[in-house]
Amino acid sequence: MNRIRLLVLNAALGPLDYRLPEGVSAPAGSVVIAPLGPRKVTGIVWDEGRLPGEEIAFERLRPILEVVPVPPLPAPLRRLIEWTADYYCAPLASVARMALASGGALGGPATMTEYRLSGGTPERMTAQRLAAIEALEGEQGTMRELAGIAGVSEGVLRGLVNQGVIEPVTVNIDRPYPPADPDHAPPDLSPEQSAVATRLVAAVEARAFAPFLLDGVTGSGKTETYFEPVAAALRMGRQVLVLLPEIALTENFLARFAARFGAAPVLWHSSLKSTERRRAWRAIADGSAQVVVGARSALFLPYANLGLIVVDEAHEVSFKQDDGVRYNARDVSVMRARFEGVPVVLASATPALESLHMAAQGIYEKLDLPARFGGASLPQVALINLTEEKPGSGRWLAGPLIEGLRDRLAKGEQSLLFLNRRGYAPLTLCRNCGHRFKCPSCSAWLVEHRLSSRLACHHCGFETRVPEACPECGESDCLVACGPGVERIADEVRDLFPEARIALATSDTLNTPERAAQFIAAAEAGAIDIIIGTQLVTKGFHFPELTLVGVVDADLGLEGGDLRAAERTYSQVAQVAGRAGRGAKPGEVLIQTRHPDAPVIAALANNDRDGFYAAETAARRDANAPPFGRWAAIILSSEDEKEAREAAVRLGDVRPRLADVQILGPAPAPLALLRGRYRYRFLVNAKRSANLQAVLRDWIAAVNFAPGVRVGVDIDPYSFV
Ligand code: ADP
Ligand code: ZN
Q: Is 216 in the pocket of ligand 1 (CB under 6 A)?
């Protein structure tokens, strides 16, 4: 049969049929280029009978143009693409795009030119040339990279190329990665770690689907423990995928990986250069990439021979993608493991309620690491009631927390203040006329960033300079900052302790891997007394001298009241608390709150995780919320307010009326304007008995929307804005 059906990488097109030219073979999964009118399209040869569509007479089929010389996408990945599109109500083409990652991986040159010193000397030596030559000793890279290393312009280096001092070398982009050695430096595991590792190693060797929830307190050594099944997979010649939530901050992980396996893993994230992306994609597809450490998008890559998936910090909200294909990488990773027939490990100190529920039902096997490694104790937690211990006016730190900081400074120990708010202040207004600074394209306040003298929208990235005068009334020197962000806390700390060495740790200050590495090195070396950070500092760090964690506002996450507010607050505070006392010295955690009796705050104070989860589970059951019932959101948006509203009304008019599905809305979304688009929202709450996806698909298909309207479906939403 040389008729093929293609899944074309264009969501506007359905599946298309083509003919294979004589002598050309393209099994299912092959990536091909095909003609479409005068254009060319990229498509994936799909399994016979799995994509619905009309049969066109064979004579009328056009032949494909080319089979791209990459391995066909494996069957388990094809099944995963189908499942993801179906479950998340997303176009197949959009999901398939994630597997191909970028055109760059498929085509383009396989070599590139890099440069290095040749050993020669220039005819005329200048001070600048001499400095450049010294700086480039032993280096090799592109012109731009070398110019960066030498601190000179590319023009200077080109001058040296012309004189033969720097020579070009041709580099194979697809060159193999250095091999990881499973036996490079195995650790001595504690008996508890060892028991968990043995179980996981057996699962890898069994080569069968097996989902695990690795539930270990902060500092229990989850990483060291799951490195053992990673080593087992390596010994079997199989690939491993490790998903991490914040790939920008993986320095600590990478160092530990290299120490254990003697080589770096293969990285996958959105800011890879296109040559690195191509190299990684190809090595993943041909099976030579042994361990891939990546952000959620690494989940859809075409692993040739996967043996294990690990999702570290599996509770993290950033595994949920909120635009494009709205999927949850934690859940999709379990499906991928199922299609591949391999174990998957969800590791966390504060597992998602959904994951614990699966474990309680016996669907996931739960493995526990209940104690910190090396005998370190968990930190003491105490609440500071802000209604009694009031900070001074325009201040945010209460007396006991200030005393705690003073005490650590005197002892030469480190403190960490946590506030999950970037910038200086979340709202700026005019004292004279009351004008509030708002984003022009979102219904959101502009956040003052004093370090960069800017007002910024945290939703769309809009930025403007802080004006001298109020744009509304023209009065100058009249702007007031309302509420605290981390920059403002840093000011307060500087004021209190001028001699302290302070570091701000946010995505604004640690915005490159180099800066992140510098921060970590300084913190580890004890060169920082007080760290002030956002959620960026809640995970992964291990600073032995850190003995005090202060949570500036534990109530912050409870505002807005979405479904997971309490759970998120619990895990965020527990994670940041887990940074304290990881070394020999015991840790202390001080939590500032106005609601010491709120169940989640009380649970944090009493280290009563089980109690918190039990209460939260009961509340979810009553509300028919996940993991019991299910939620979905439909967002209709348009640049035109009236068009968006009309679309919402029309969809509302044809809403399905079913006993097990409740539909709320339409209503303007809490973020009624986002990036210049007006948004209306339906919330759908379904019982487990309903086929939620089918209901949504049929409902949406019943309306013909205006071309300017975008319809977004969010299954199991995390964001309720
Ligand atoms: P978790 O991820 O569970 O919070 P980590 O994996 O970060 O804990 O481990 C905490 C610290 O203990 C790390 O510095 C780690 O290197 C160390 N550690 C854990 N297990 C061992 C072990 N078996 N041998 C040596 N060091 C260990
Ligand atoms: Zn905005």
A: yes
Tell me, yes or no, whether 332 and 249 share the same domain: yes
pLDDT one-digit tens code per residue, 360-384: 999 999 999 999 998 888 899 999 9
| Rounded Cα–Cα distance for residues 218 and 408 (Å) | 22
Is residue 541 lining ligand 1, measured as CB closer than 6 Å?
A: no
pLDDT cut 90: percent of the chain above it: 74
448 and 547 belong to one structural domain: no
Q: Are 466 and 452 in contact (CB under 8 A)?
A: no
* Domain limits for position 342: 191-373
pLDDT tens-digit series, residues 667-703: 999 899 999 999 999 999 999 999 999 999 999 999 9
The DSSP secondary-structure symbol of 227 reads H
222 lines ligand 1 (CB under 6 A): yes
Quick one: 165 and 298 in the same domain? no
* Test site for ligand 1: of 224, 257, 310, 546, most ligand atoms within 8 A of the Cβ: 224
Q: Is the dihedral of CA 288, 292, 296, 297 positive or negative?
A: negative
pLDDT digits (tens, 9 = 90+) for 202-246: 999 999 999 999 999 988 999 999 999 999 999 999 999 999 987
Is residue 311 within 8 Å of residue 352, measured between CB atoms? no
Residue 420 Cβ inside 6 Å of ligand 1? The answer reads no
Domain boundary residue, one of 590, 617, 644:
617
Q: Are residues 667 and 694 in the same domain?
A: yes
**Residue 218 Cα: closest atom of ligand 1:** 4
Total domains present in the chain: 6
